Amino acid sequence: MRCPASACAWCSRTSSQFRWPALVPGLCCLWCGGKNVRVVCESSVTYGNFSGGWEMKWSGRFCGWYLAAAMVAALSLGRTCLGTCEDGNPSDRPNFLFILTDDLGWGDLSCYGNTRFRTPNLDRLAQEGILFTQYYQAGSVCSPSRAALLTSRYPAELRLHGHLAQPEQNAARDMPNFMDPSVPTLAQLLRSAGYATIHVGKWHLGRPNPQDPGLEIYGFEMARWIDCREGERNLWQLEERPTGTKVLVDTTIELLKQVKGRPFYCQLWLHDPHAPLNPPAELMEKFRRSTPQGFTSPFMVYAATVVEMDRQIGRLIQALEEMGLRENTVIIFSSDNGPEDIDIGNAAWSAYGSAGPLRGRKRSLYEGGIRVPFIVSWPAGAPAGQINNTTVICGVDFLPTLCELAGVPLPETVRESIRGESLAAAFRGQVDCQRTKPLFWQWRFRVFNHPWNRSPILAVREGPWKLLLNPDLSRVELYNIPEDPGEQTNRAAEHPEIVDRLKQMALDWHHSLPPGRFDREAGQADYPWPGTGSQTSR
Hints:
4-stranded antiparallel beta sheet; Alkaline Phosphatase, subunit A; 8-stranded mixed beta sheet; about 550 residues; 23 strands; alpha/beta
């Protein structure tokens, strides 16, 4: 077994390459005496075209002081990257802490290339674990993505085509008012195997009985601040937003202390950086730059929100360490979809988010709408400082992957109904771990902002190829994602055989879904003037 040396290698400069300033001193791997030993190096992140495919790499050189200090610390503590060593199977079942942000873009963290502001705690989490560059959510907005994470079903199968709203709005879009409680969830499977199951924060999947104080019907033993509301307090209100993430982190720490001694699955689903945003004024001052006194800019508001969120996440990780839980806890960090659009009325501040070099934003099936940050850190079972540019993972893989890591076998009925597959090997550091199933997406409504971001209705990805099209076979677009992550060059005319195969797969999947309404403007690259009606049936 080889050391993931790409984590430490210098990156050669090429054209079509982005390179960012050095991050905080981080953790990489040193091959030494047959063991992977964590060492600290000065590193930056580069996303570029290396040998015909786009990759992200740590780059930088070893600093002698950090190298010596890290070697002493690593050897004295016996800290090795167990996921890559022969004797690296942890004896105890791992804990899981799943932190899901709201509307955070692929390019919003400094470990994903953001140079506008720094996210040191999440950078450190990435440098202590694995940063994935090809992770997708199964939806381009919140409710669909969350349903897929918990059920391993495509959200369109559950008729969760968009965000859940008021009953009349749901009915107008042929959607239920809550996720079907008869569909098995990750929380139910883990709880039946002895795990404590905890939910804190945004839910956005509804409940059969909205007055029910908990989420036991979906498998959660404990649930607090469901949809960020508790008692008379509503953390979505503007006056609560400055401290909302702190409240959710405080609650998470409190609940983890209550279940100490038991394996746990805890999902902390934050509401930042979803609009409306209202960070403390003193935090915004750090990002004033050229903005005149007396004014605030979208950059000030968004940067302060994300940096404060990063700080609170760092506080939660520190609490895990103080409780002695960090070593065997799999911390997973992600976002529910791409960054918000500027055209949404209440989202002007949050629309400053970045999809990096990716095309599209929230609601779009282009990469920027569905491809999001994904970091896995597990000191007892995975290598540090690894960047995985090759494994394609999706939210539908979450349930089978975590169940395998937990040693929880899937009942036959669940195995037959889920759409994802276990990619636990990638979580343990196997960089050549590849999926065997294609991925599908559907979006039935209009996409806002620039026409360049307005995708067709359907998308399918298999191997390196991603096909987008409308059910009437208009707007057929084929992209080689590893070579062209920004989806700039439509290769459909060059590869008709690939188009035909993926097109048939997408249409077969589309016709297997429950029928329902589509916006009249869905799948259009440009929209007519208002007043011509908004919806049509399939």
